[in-house]
Design goal:
Layout (H helix, E strand, L loop, with lengths): L1 E6 L8 E6 L6 H11 L8 E6 L2 E6 L5 H11 L4
Antiparallel strand pairs: 1-2, 3-4
Length: 80
């Protein structure tokens, strides 16, 4: 399993990306279990990428706020 975590923004604006390849690790099972627990189960669910100018938000339908749903409905012209 390849796990990638990226962080951007903050006061200094320094981006950080790290990858963990669990295939050769002794503790692979623990890493993979943790990675699976942080991903919300979305059976046949929608995923969204909202970009406003140079800002981007990636999420799935289980985590949408009311305002995000409203924007998605307005832009896509359908219920979200």
């Amino acid at each position: 399993m390849l796990i990638t975590v990226s962080r951007s923004g903050g006061f200094t604006g320094v981006d950080k990306v790290r990858k963990i390849d669990t295939s050769a690790r002794r503790d692979a099972a623990a890493w993979e279990d943790l990675a699976r627990r942080v991903l919300p189960p979305v059976a046949d669910g929608f995923h969204y990428r909202i970009t406003v100018d140079d800002q981007e938000l990636v999420l799935d339908e289980t985590g949408l706020t009311g305002d995000q749903r409203e924007l998605i409905r307005a832009v896509l012209g359908e219920a979200a």
